[in-house]
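Take a look at the protein record below and tell me what you see:
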Amino acid sequence: MTFRTSGPFPPLILDDVRGAQKMLSGVARTTGMEGSRHLSALVGAPVHLKCENLQRTGSFKLRGAYVRIAGLSPVERASGVVAASAGNHAQGVALASSLLGVRSTVFMPVGAPLPKVAATRDYGAEVRLQGQVVDETLAAAQEYAEETGAVFIHPFDHPDIIAGQGTVGLEILEQCPEVRTIVVGIGGGGLAAGIAVAVKALRPDVRVVGVQAAGAAAFPPSLSAGHPVVLDQVHTMADGIKVGRPGDLTFPLVQELVDEIRTVSEDELSSALLLCLERAKMVVEPAGASPVAALLSDPESFRGPVVAVLSGGNVDPLLMRRVLTHGMVAAGRYLSLRLRLTDRPGALAAMLATLSVADANVLDISHVRTDPRLGLTEAEVELHLETKGPEHCEEVASALRAAGYLVRS
């Protein structure tokens, strides 16, 4: 089965993906498939997690980068390669180049997370920090390619990249032959397009569902328009799928082969990341958790067995802390309250005793006496509590009110 691409490239076929799989033998890991009892119970059918977060470099990006660079001519290899990325593609290109003995230069935004910058250097690339946003970094890398003759390695919009990412689809069919639905995050579309090319050629009955962050969802308007559309702005914590325009090659493949595009909110991404950590014991970045977010948002709409692709696990520890906190708030696991009490000895201890009976854990407390809005004998307390869920939050607030406190959220 042949699938169309646009531009000067030949159509992408299953044999391209199979060739990429042979090329990646001994280079990329065949990542594991883990069942999720919690998600299976929600969906009402088996749910499996395809763990590309455990791939070398921490994401699927090595697959496409290696196939692309391995396909270069000796003259092109001698000129070196250049890429632009905030993280995952950078590391994939760096390692692939090192394995193939090719010099690599990677442009990264000035504000790129330090662990990702360090990892890219450790994999052997020369890192140049330039630009405040990825678009500026991309322009710098393309200018470098024109000036030096280095080959620009696009993060998603090249047949070799798409074929390399498509090997994930072949592995899914081998590991879970009974699969009925594959859910995968979409940024520029390389992974989703590659998986769809492989899967639809062998199992056209399998439904492929793409997931985008609501703040960076370029595919829905593009599909409506019939061509790639540029978003005016993109905003999401999921930097792995933070792309403002579909690729010229990936768009027609997604349009033809991906059955549905869904969007998820930042709250849903946070909750999904928290679930992956708590229930699956998986460190997953927000983009990698997007398929899980889609399952959580509407579990009964997926036909099982379902495979959710955890595309990456390269999350900055500082972002992880913020996202986990956000996820716990979204899940009703944190409660912030302000209340007033009489400013007298023992008043704070009495309030804390009420919280103890309600089984709420105090994470932080601030005691204000100098606000001009307070009466002469009043004090205001701001509380940050750890709770067991939304129902417990209501129970805690009700217990405080029953004890005579004026509670404000």
